[in-house]
Amino acid sequence: MIVIPIGVLIAILTLGSAMTALYIQRRLPDAAKSDSVRSLIGQISALLSLLLAIVLGQLVATSFSFFFTQQANLNNFAAQVLQYDQALAQYGPETKPARLRLKEGIVSSYNLFFVQRDVNAAALTVAKPLKDSAAIAAFLVSLQPTTEAQKQAVAKANQYATAMEKSRLLMSLDVASQGVPWQLVVVLAVWGIAIFFGYGLFVPRNPAIMTALAFGAVSIGLAVFLIFDLRQPYTGVSRISPAALEQTIAFINN
């Protein structure tokens, strides 16, 4: 997945800038190593570190919030599917074929997003939920309730069908709107590279320093990875839990 190479690339570039600075510092004239130069570069590095920490922290927090919101949306959608199925069951045996198709559709979606690892992004667009909602609406209109219980069941089914449609559309639209501007990623990478270059200019070259720089670079790469990956809850490495959908599949059409 593209999110992994992005994180790895930023970690490599950040660490590479520090290694380059360690190499350059041996060739710097003494005037370039004075206390005033060291202080100026230290202050600039501190400023960039603060900016990077604020922006990275905000983006990671936003991505986590989106991830858990999508988890809540999926759980809510699963509950609405069960309620819709129960409303159809209350109508009578005439709805059995529709309930079977509903279960097949939920199983198909489950397999697509939680069993397969390579998911076509087109599956997350609003095209499929719009098509499904039109089919459900046509089916509900075709029902001809004759008893008060059946009329109430149809009313409930229409209510839950509308809620299902809204939830599914919101899930698709939210995913579509969660892209991270590439310009921002470039800025974050430049800040990280500049910060670690400044670190490498004046620190001694020893295993402890090299390990600390490597750990810091990997941490920045992981943060960028999280920003991207958590915004892809159905296609990324860290996917939301399908437990609610599994419960729905187990009890639907029973």
Proportion in β-strands:
under 5%
Backbone shape: rod-shaped
- SSE class: mainly alpha
**Mean pLDDT rating:** 87
Low-confidence stretches: none
The N- to C-terminal Cα distance equals: 38 Å
User: How many discrete domains?
Assistant: 1
Radius of gyration over alpha carbons? Answer: 27 Å
Strand count, sense and barrel status of the largest sheet are: none
Number of helices: 8
Q: Portion of residues in helices? A: over 70%
Q: What does this protein structure show overall?
A:
With 254 residues, the chain is mainly alpha-helical. The protein has one domain. 78% of the residues lie in helices and 0% in strands. The protein has 8 helices and no strands. Helix 2 packs parallel to helix 7. The two termini are 38 Å apart. The relative contact order is 0.22.
Q: What labels describe this entry?
A:
single chain; 254 residues; mainly alpha; 0% strand; rod-shaped
Task: Characterize this entry briefly.
This protein has 254 residues and is an all-alpha fold. 78% of the residues lie in helices and 0% in strands.
Question: How do the strands and helices of this protein lay out in sequence?
Answer:
Layout: H1 3-25, H2 35-91, H3 96-115, H4 127-142, H5 148-176, H6 182-202, H7 207-229, H8 243-251
